[in-house]
């Protein structure tokens, strides 16, 4: 039981490049979330999903897209990376009854 | 709009001293409050939630609706308590889909 996993762990991009971050959970959770963590800003919600095939915008969605084609996976895409997207990205999941969110180990992204 | 404020970015104490990490929130509905902790090189994990009314690793937190606070306390800090602590808020009712609003985080350092 791996919980929540994220790939890759670290990535360096040039401005304008695209990439996809993958989040996978094996707890059969309905809800999944993508956050970014920046110094002094805490964690901010980018997008979230309440079930397979559904996505919704969070607090800071601009510049990102997401997809949830399978219940266990939640993908975060950057179509044209910008230096302002340099951050640590965390994925989390929770059950339909809510409460505790379980986090992945994070992906550190540097955009040059 | 809901908001969580952690006024201290950094907090330093000596081993054995009491510690209090402050958290204030603004929310018009019925809140559910959490404390999450991130130890060095580990993922974010739940420390405690107010509805559980339990003590985890010697930490307690009481929800004070009058002062809109949810401060985290421990009477005798240990070096292994050194970590980043996040206070978080969720809507206890309605269709919030478990979304959390995080504070900015407080880095606690416990010196030997």
In short:
The complex is a heterodimer of chains A (about 110) and B (about 110). By secondary structure, chain A is an all-beta fold.
Please state the average pLDDT score of chain A.
94
Structure class of chain B: mainly beta
Tally the helices of chain A: what do you get? 0
What gap, in angstroms, lies between the N and C termini of chain A? Answer: 36 Å
How far apart are the first and last residues' alpha carbons of chain B, in Å? 41 Å
Largest sheet of chain A: 7 strands, mixed
The helix/strand series of chain B, from N terminus to C terminus, equals: EEEEEEEEEEE
Instruction: Report the helical percentage of chain A.
Output: under 10%
Percent range for β-strand residues of chain B: 35-45%
How is the quaternary structure best described?
heterodimer
User: Averaging pLDDT over every residue of chain B, what do you get?
Assistant: 91
Name the beta content range of chain A.
over 45%
Q: Which structural class should the secondary elements of chain A be placed in?
A: mainly beta
Overall, the morphology of chain B is globular
Q: Rounded to an integer, what's the Rg of chain B over CA atoms?
A: 14 Å
Q: Low-confidence runs of chain A (pLDDT<50, min 5 residues)?
A: none
Number of strands of chain B: 11
Biggest pleated-sheet summary of chain B? 6 strands, mixed
Largest interface: A-B, 25 and 23 residues
């Amino acid at each position: 039981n791996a919980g929540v996993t994220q790939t890759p762990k670290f990535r360096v991009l040039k401005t304008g490049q695209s990439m996809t971050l993958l989040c996978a959970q094996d707890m059969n959770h309905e809800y999944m979330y993508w956050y970014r963590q920046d110094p002094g800003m805490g964690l901010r919600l980018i997008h979230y999903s309440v079930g397979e095939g559904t996505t919704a915008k969070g607090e800071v969605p601009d510049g990102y897209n997401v997809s949830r084609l399978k219940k266990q996976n939640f993908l975060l895409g950057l179509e044209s990376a910008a230096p302002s997207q340099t951050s640590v990205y965390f994925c989390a999941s929770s059950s339909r009854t809510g409460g505790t969110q379980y986090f992945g180990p994070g992906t550190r992204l540097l955009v040059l | 709009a809901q908001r969580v404020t952690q006024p201290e970015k950094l907090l330093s104490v000596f081993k054995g001293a009491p510690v209090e990490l402050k958290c204030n929130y603004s929310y018009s509905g019925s809140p559910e409050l959490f404390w999450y902790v991130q130890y060095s090189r580990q993922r974010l994990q739940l420390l405690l939630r107010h509805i559980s009314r339990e003590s985890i690793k010697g930490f307690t937190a009481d929800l004070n609706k009058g002062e809109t606070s949810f401060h985290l306390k421990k009477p005798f800090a240990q070096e292994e308590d050194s970590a980043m602590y996040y206070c978080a808020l969720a809507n206890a009712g309605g269709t919030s889909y478990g979304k959390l609003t995080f504070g900015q985080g407080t880095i606690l350092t416990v010196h030997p």
